[in-house]
Amino acid sequence: MPDCSLFLDADQLLLADHFDLYLPLFSPLIYVFGTWTLLVVQWLAVLLGAWGVRRLALACGAEEPIALMGMCVMLLFFGVFAAMAFDYHSNVVAAMLLPWFMLALRKGKVVRGAFLFFLLLISKENLGFWIGPIALLLATDRGVGRKVRLPAAIMGVVGIVWSAIIVGLVMPALASDQSFAHFDYGILGASVADAPSALVAKPWELLRALFVDHVGVQDGTGIKLEFWLMLFVAGGWSLVLQPRLGLMALPIMVQKMWHDDPGKWSVIAHYGIELAPLVGVATALALARIRGATMRWLPWGVLVLSLACTIRFMDRTVAYHDRSRIRIYQERHYVKGYEVRAVHRALEAIPLEAIVSAQSPAVPHLALRRTVYQFPIVREAEYLVFLPAESPYPLDAMTYSETLRVLRGDPGWEIFRETDGCVVLKLVEDSNSR
C-alpha cells in the first residue's frame, strides 16, 4: 500500500493524509505519460469540464452562443488558472465531473448519474460534504424528472454520510496518531464530532467568519474580501441571479472560509476550483434570461471581466510571493537563471535503482523510482539532490543554506554532480553518515 514516507517522517498510509482513490486509478498511465501523468490528466479534465458546462447550459435552455460563453467564462475563471499554475489535485478533476453529473440527472440518466456521483465521492474525503448537498438540491429541482428525485435524495444522504465516516472513522484508523490530520477548523471545535453542535450554537459567528478574519492573521480580512470581490467580478454575480446554483456553491465556501489556514481563504492554488463549473453554468443561464440591445455587448463584457480577474491574479494578490511562476506574460516565467538541461543531465546520471532524497522541485522528476524522499527527509538515501536557485520548501532559506553548507563539508558525502543550478551528493561507501 502507498505510504506517506516521501514527505512525512512518521510512517502511515497515504490514504490517511487524503482519501484519494483517483491516484491508483490513474497510476497505470505513467507507462504512457511518465512523470507528466497527473498534469496531463488534470489538463484533459478541465477541457472535459468546460465541454460539460456547455452541454449543461444547452440542456437548461441556453442557446449555443450563450452556452459557449459560459464555457469560456469557466476556462477564463481565475480559480482554474490558479489550480493549473499550482499543482495537481484530485478535487480539480472531480470538480470537472460536476456539470456531467447534473446533466445526467437532468436527462433522467440515473445509472450514469450514480456512477458520476461515485467518482466524485472517491476523489477526496471532503467532497461528500459538497456533492451531497448538491444532490439534495437537485432532488428538489423542477428541471429534474420525478423518477430521478428519490435517487438524487438518496445520493445526497449517502454523500454526507460517506464523508462523515471517512473523516471521522476511516482516516483516523489509518493514521499513525489515530487522528484526522486535516480538521483545521478551530471555529467548529476540536474534532469533526464537535462540528454539528457548533453549527447550532453560534450561527452568527460562523456567518461573520465567511467574510472576516477569525484566526487573527495579518491581512486576514483582506484575503477573504479579495476572494469574494474577484469571485463576484469574474462571474459570481450570476450565482445571485441563479440562487439554486448559488446554494450549490455554499458548502464549498464554508469549508474554505472557516478553515484556520488563511491560504485556503485566498484566490491562490486549487481552493476555488469547485466554483468554476458553477460560475460557468450560472453565467450562461443568467445571460440567457437577458434580452434586448444589452446582449450585443454584455456577454463580451463578462468575458473581459473574467479575464481581467485572472490577469489581476497573475499581477498581484495578497497571498502570492514569487509571481514569476504565474505571470505568463513575462519572460522570466519561461527562462531560468541557470542551465536547465545541465540539471536534467545531472538527475539522469543518478542510477535508477538508487534511493534519493531530493529538494521538493526535483522530486517529480525523480518520482518513477522505487524509493525517493523529499529533503530534509534522508533516511537510507544514497544520493542527495539540491537546487539552490529553487524554493527551499519545506525549509526556510536560512536553514536550507546552512544545511547544504554542512553537508558539502561532511566527509560522509561526496560531490557526484554539480552545475550552476544543481548539486548532487553521493553517500561515501561504508559511511554511517546520515
Produce the secondary structure layout.
Blueprint: H1 22-26, H2 30-33, H3 37-59, H4 64-76, H5 78-86, H6 90-95, H7 98-106, H8 110-121, H9 128-138, H10 146-174, H11 195-201, H12 203-209, H13 220-241, H14 243-257, H15 262-265, H16 275-288, H17 298-315, H18 340-348, E1 356-358, E2 372-374, E3 383-386, H19 397-408, E4 413-418, E5 423-427
Parallel strand pairs: 1-2, 1-3
Antiparallel strand pairs: 3-5, 4-5
Short description:
By secondary structure, the chain is mainly alpha-helical. The chain is 53% helix and 5% strand. It is built from 19 helices and five strands.
Which features characterize this protein?
single chain, 434 residues, mainly alpha, 19 helices, 5 strands
Largest sheet: 5 strands, mixed
The end-to-end distance, rounded to whole angstroms, is 27 Å
Strands in their spatial order, largest beta sheet: 2-1-3-5-4
- Structural class per helix/strand content? mainly alpha
Global Rg? 24 Å
Helical amount: 40-55%
N-to-C series of helices and strands: HHHHHHHHHHHHHHHHHHEEEHEE
Low-confidence stretches: none
Protein architecture, described:
- With 434 residues, this protein is mostly helical.
- The chain folds into two domains: 14-325, no CATH class; 340-427, no CATH class.
- It has 19 helices and five strands.
- It has a five-stranded mixed beta sheet.
- The radius of gyration is 24 Å and the shape is globular.
- The mean pLDDT is 89.
